[in-house]
Amino acid sequence: MKLLFSFFGRTGRGGLWLTAVISLAVSLIAFLIAEAYFGVMLSFVGPDGTPLPLDQMPPDDAVPVFNVPALQAYLVGLVLATWIYLAGSIKRAHDRGKSGWWVLISFIPVVGFIWWLIDLGIFEGEQGPNKYGPDPRGQAS
After folding, report:
1. Is 133 left (phi over 0), alpha (psi -120 to 50) or beta?
2. Contact criterion met (CB below 8 Å) for 85 and 15
3. Pairs from 115-120 (Cβ < 8 Å, separation ≥ 24)
4. What is the pLDDT at residue 87?
């Protein structure tokens, strides 16, 4: 549970990838539950108010209709998924000897993902203990 919810300490690459997969799974499950229980989150109606088929591109004059309860249910799952993602990424940044604030870079489209993938997902962490805690691999310096 500490791996998923705590922002303190360090984790290796395996911990990062595990939290990324769990975060993605939580988001997907929340989406599926919200859609199954409350229905589609977004639909369209024509100018006359008639519902449009979901399997076709809506015309330019279509009006979007948001299913607020479905969106709210999905948002709960999305907040949980984001928390898990941040916990794993921050602990991984700590393992690389960086402040957790560096993880904010990952929210920049494209560049952020590339940084996250290379710096946190591929590069090795610092060997031995650092100011964020002991080496997650259990190695002494």
Report:
1. left
2. no
3. 116/89, 120/13, 120/16, 120/89, 120/92, 120/93, 120/96
4. 97
Q: Could you tell me which residues are beta bridge partners of residue 133?
A: 130
Residue 106 — pLDDT band, cuts 50, 70, 90? very high
pTM of the predicted model over 0.90: no
Q: What is the 3-state secondary structure (H, E, C) of the chain?
A: CHHHHCCCCCCCHHHHHHHHHHHHHHHHHHHHHHHHHHCCCEEEECCCCCECCCCCCCCCCCEEEECHHHHHHHHHHHHHHHHHHHHHHHHHHHHCCCCHHHHHHHHCCCHHHHHHHHHHCCCCCCCCCECCECCCCCCCC
Look up residue 56 and give its two tokens: 């076709």
Report d(CA 88, CA 39) in Å as an integer: 32
Contact 136, 130 (CB under 8 A): no
